[in-house]
Amino acid sequence: MEASAGLVAGSHNRNELVVIHGHEEPKPLKNLDGQVCEICGDDIGLTVDGDLFVACNECGFPVCRPCYEYERREGTQHCPQCRTRYKRLKGSPRVEGDEDEEDVDDIEHEFNIEDEQNKHKHLVEAMLHGKMSYGRGPEDDESAQFPPVITGGRSRPVSGEFPIGAAHAYGEQISSSSLHKRVHPYPMEEPGSARGDEKKEGGWKERMDDWKLQQGNLVPEPEDANDPDMALIDEARQPLSRKVPIASSKINPYRMLIVARLVILAFFLRYRILNPVHDAIGLWLTSIVCEIWFAFSWILDQFPKWFPIDRETYLDRLSLRYEREGEPNMLAPVDIFVSTVDPMKEPPLVTANTVLSILAMDYPVDKVSCYVSDDGAAMLTFEALSETAEFARKWVPFCKKFSIEPRAPEWYFTLKIDYLKDKVQPTFVKERRAMKREYEEFKIRINALVAKSQKVPSGGWIMQDGTPWPGNNTKDHPGMIQVFLGHSGGVDAEGNELPRLVYVSREKRPGFQHHKKAGAENALIRVSAVLTNAPFMLNLDCDHYVNNSKAVREAMCFLMDPQIGKKVCYVQFPQRFDGIDTHDRYANRNTVFFDINMKGLDGIQGPVYVGTGCVFRRQALYGYEPPKGPKRPKMVSCDCCPCFGRRKKDRKHSKHGGGGATNGVDDDKELLMSQMNFEKKFGQSAIFVTSTLMEEGGVPPSSSPAALLKEAIHVISCGYEDKTEWGTEFGWIYGSITEDILTGFKMHCRGWRSIYCMPKRAAFKGSAPINLSDRLNQVLRWALGSVEIFFSRHCLPGMASREGQLRWLERFAYVNTTIYPFTSLPLLAYCTLPAICLLTDKFIMPPISTFASLLFIALFLSIFATGILELRWSGVSIEEWWRNEQFWVIGGISAHLFAVVQGLLKILAGIDTNFTVTSKATDDEEFGELYTFKWTTLLIPPTTVLVINLVGVVAGISDAINNGYQSWGPLFGKLFFSFWVILHLYPFLKGLMGRQNRTPTIVVIWSNLLASIFSLLWVRIDPFVLKTKGPDTKQCGINC
């Protein structure tokens, strides 16, 4: 793939393909025509049989025959790239060392490679050859009318473009002399052997050692025990990660308390049902229904946290296993997706920082490809990305030279820490100042682009070469691809290669369903499969930058682990946020979910997918099932009657030979091939369909640059997914604005498991809306997505009950993610009940006995104790837990309630709602947005509930004052529930009041409340009216 070859725009349906040059200054490109020797630069030439000469059959490093002969005769006799000893080829003279090889003069007999990967090679090539022209007309001449945007002529593996015949998959051991040093046990001597007789004549100690050796009590010392490489090899064979179970002293009391709370809850509900309140039967019945729903919701939320675990990764072992010195780097390539829509709500500077942090990751540059999806087709995003690519040439080498963290410049330069810590290079301060000045100039250029984009020209945007911008009509434009950084031209200021950076804007036409973010992600899957086809993919929101440069390595410790990696569909990282106020008023960090719920799911079948910060296995997103391990042997049955039927079934099974191990991925692929339904499943693209069969990734070597270019435009066309299974069975699933829940659910249902990775340094960080209205709108969008899923054909409660490969506690979690918005209805009723009780002088419970009092106390103690023990094993602070509880009530009676209403309107009346992108813009003043008041209808229900409860408190206290001492007892129960509601809504009240001239909100609340109470008390006492006891003198007279 070559950079700076122009913007490629086109439409497959309209048979259009345009290359726009001149937007940037073209950079000198390397000549990639033909196969040339990497040593002397001459043509490689052909063998005596007329085939292309291949000197090394291990890595395919291009070397001509004269250089090959010279290297074997005068040099080291090893391949310059993989350091494997050159084999003697047909027609080559023998040299010293060839005597150890078989006396065969045909290279085909010197290797016996019949692994699965070579099997797929012939499969892929045959399929590609047969389908390249299917429905496409005659072959076009691969002439100069198409620029060489994508490499296809060289055999050098770059950016995941692996040779198909590579025998070194990442899950296998590499054939090298250093790796195959093994410790073999000493052979056992047979009785009467010469060695045995000689030992018998030796000393007593030697005979004793020999006897211990034969008995197995003495381990022989290997010959290479003192070899320093041996320790590294042994370390590399160790697992790349491990589970860290929660200490039993923390988890066992927690589980026992959950069971105790369940029992207490059952007794509580029994008491409530058997003791109705006859004079307030309506209030009592409403409270009973609410409490039963709360109990059901608590079970769905609590029991998936039964098996919480932590995990550890070993990055040093990953390097020892896949990054050996002097050998090709075997870390798997990764394609990284960044999605953006509206540059006004998602500022280009934020997206630029995310892209820069990706390009500067601590990962081999030829293994990283960054794809930026501009779903708004904005020229502002395109030009900002062009500026970002230029600044990356200076920023990336600076990051890697000084190992700075984080590698997003905006956040690095605003860190309030000692940036000189652990820095020893004398030039660091000077280069840091220069880089900060460069970044400030870069920001000025980006801000200038933003300012220019505020006013759209009447004729639309014009590019620098005078060509109209293809995306002037954001709802009707062709697909666009621009390679900003690539294999040729993508070098930094020091001449080192940079990762690939590709701009993608999929085609949009009226009358087509584009499926919002899910459709954009699926388009990125296809275009990346055509261009680089890495086996793993990382997706990030445009505001989530890479905070830990080793984040991808952390994920590879699970995905490339030979023991567990093959069954892992994705590795999910927790979401962490910057720019949140100190006390996290609206629970933006959501630490209870990310540090408690997700840890619990990791101990079952894995965490749910949360939309960003997730590394996927490409094969899992394609809908394939995980590989199945060997089946357990059948139990041998006896001759008793109950076993006859079982035994007969076993015999039938053995007759057909079904007891062997099967591989789920291979079975699926063979089935699909036999039915020839690839087009129906994946779409009409031969190159893309071929790439889906390549488990280890890579681009087919027979693909030409022109073919790849046309296919890249073809697979992002708006009609490509018609009559396919995209979005219904695989890829990002359609049907909800929260596509992440369905996408992860589909993979878990096929038997895959996911991993939750929490490195010590947060992997990714993003921005969150700290304003009350924006926060409620964000929660509304999430809840509306769950309601849409509930009313769609993907209804998780029904599907989860039918899916056999989904574990039961995992089903509980998925059902809970779908029905949690409906808790808003009983929650709203329950928050209103205290005020109604205070205003009507009724109560939802009868006068309680001693047993009932103990039951209430036990229930409340179990609730608090469960929360405390959760905080103990998870490490979440009590303030974060309390903020989460408060916002559960605030969001429940506002955003969740509106989500349920909108979902019902969509189902019953067909009224759809528009998707609104959460604004990522930041306020110049620190936490200034926190105090901004933005009116929205979401504020009405919580405000109403708050006012009703405050009025109820005042009315209840005034009534107790009027009625005397005996009415204070029942009042305390009502006041307790009312204050419970007010305390949970306190952050909401602070958000309503804003700054209030910096007067603390609590002062205003208590001032109004106490003023009302004292006013009523003052009126009741009436101190200015003199009251006397005795007869009325006016009636009786003075002398009465």
TrEMBL record:
Name its cellular compartments.
Cell membrane
Q: Which GO terms describe its molecular function?
A: cellulose synthase (UDP-forming) activity; zinc ion binding
Q: Where is the composition biased (Basic and acidic residues)?
A: 195-204
Q: Which residues cross the membrane?
A: 251-269, 281-300, 819-839, 851-869, 889-909, 930-951, 971-989, 1001-1021
Q: Where is the composition biased (Basic residues)?
A: 647-656
Q: Name one GO biological process term.
A: cellulose biosynthetic process
Q: Does ATP-binding show up as a keyword for this record?
A: no
Q: Could you say which cofactors this protein requires?
A: Zn(2+); Mn(2+)
- Say which domain of life the source belongs to: Eukaryota
* Keywords associated with the record: Acetylation, Cell membrane, Cell wall biogenesis/degradation, Cellulose biosynthesis, Glycosyltransferase, Manganese, Membrane, Metal-binding, Transferase, Transmembrane, Transmembrane helix, Zinc, Zinc-finger
Active site, renumbered: D375, D740
Q: What is its EC number?
A: 2.4.1.12
Q: Name one Pfam family in it.
A: zf-UDP
**Main subcellular location:** membrane
Q: In which pathway does it act?
A: Glycan metabolism; plant cellulose biosynthesis
Q: Where is the RING-type domain?
A: 37-83
Q: Which residues bind Mn(2+)?
A: K517, D541
The UniProt similarity line reads:
Belongs to the glycosyltransferase 2 family. Plant cellulose synthase subfamily.
Query: What is the name of the protein in this document?
Result: Cellulose synthase
Organism annotation: Rubroshorea parvifolia
Q: What is the lineage of its organism?
A: Eukaryota, Viridiplantae, Streptophyta, Embryophyta, Tracheophyta
